[in-house]
Amino acid sequence: MISSIPKWVGDLFESALRPNAKALEISYISPQIKKIRFQGDLSKMNFEIGYANVIRVSETEYRNYSAAYYNKEKGIIDIIFHIHGNGVGSQYIDTIKTGDEIYISPPRGKKIYDPNVKQQFIFGDETCLGVASSFLPYLKKNNHQFQFYFELDGENKNVTELLGLENFTVFPKNGSFRNEKWINNLPLFKTSEWKTAGFVLIGNVKSVQTFRKVLKNNMSGKIITQGYWLEGKKGL
């Protein structure tokens, strides 16, 4: 996925594709979690769970964000942002206020939801909250058995409840999901009930890779991974 391009290319791109969305409503679920409802023309956009929209966050930088909710008829799209550190994406998103207009690209990416898999397990961190929110209605509507595991900073430990998510377990973001032995002792592996489930692992690359390795050694279900960020790497 593109994270940066020369300024002149970006200017040319946006001269043809002018701002197409306006910030309609803004709320902070926590100091780090900002939810923005945008309104614009979504009629030609093809949304899939896990697809990402590109937002230009500086003259040369672009970042990918997944919709938590959308309504094509009303032209509404909700995006949940993780505001943290001094990254250019976080800095830009933190400045957006009601009434601001931006360009949001059509979504694209990897399909991560298979309606034919009865059991669904989703793992991630703060960057996963939007995808998790988009997952939930489909999991309930199609009568899946499902679980969410989240690794979150302390100040975000209540955001899953505030966002209305269900069947979730929140773990502190203390490096545990980079410890294979610790992962092996999770309740998930204490029963054969989830052995053939579908697993979706998204968020921090190191956590995703370690969790995937343990799952491959213990489970037979399909594993889908998507790294959203990695320490020291810009614009993953």
Task: Give an account of the 3D structure.
- The chain is of the alpha/beta class.
- It has two domains: 7-102, Elongation Factor Tu (Ef-tu), domain 3 (Beta Barrel); 119-229, Nucleotide-binding domain of ferredoxin-NADP reductase (FNR) module (Rossmann fold).
- The protein is 23% helix and 31% strand.
- The protein has helices spanning 7-16, 88-95, 129-141, 159-162, 180-184, 205-218; strands at 21-30, 33-40, 53-56, 62-65, 67-71, 76-82, 101-102, 119-124, 145-152, 168-172, 198-204, 223-229.
- The strands form three sheets. Strands 5-6-2-1-7 form a five-stranded antiparallel β-sheet. It has a five-stranded parallel β-sheet with strand order 10-9-8-11-12, with helices on both faces.
- A hairpin with a 4-residue loop joins strand 5 and strand 6 (76-82).
- The mean pLDDT is 90.
Strand order of the largest sheet: 5-6-2-1-7
CATH superfamily caption of the largest domain: Nucleotide-binding domain of ferredoxin-NADP reductase (FNR) module
Largest sheet report: 5 strands, antiparallel
Query: In total, how many domains does the architecture comprise?
Result: 2
> What percent of residues are in strands?
25-35%
Question: Structural class, from helix and strand content?
Answer: alpha/beta
In the CATH scheme, what's the topology name of the largest domain? Rossmann fold
Spatial separation of the terminal alpha carbons: 8 Å
Please estimate the helix content: 10-25%
CATH class of the largest domain: Alpha Beta
Shape: globular
Q: How many extended strands?
A: 12
Gyration radius, in Å: 18 Å
- Give unreliable regions as ranges: none
Run of helices and strands: HEEEEEEHEEHEHEHEHE
Helical element count?
6
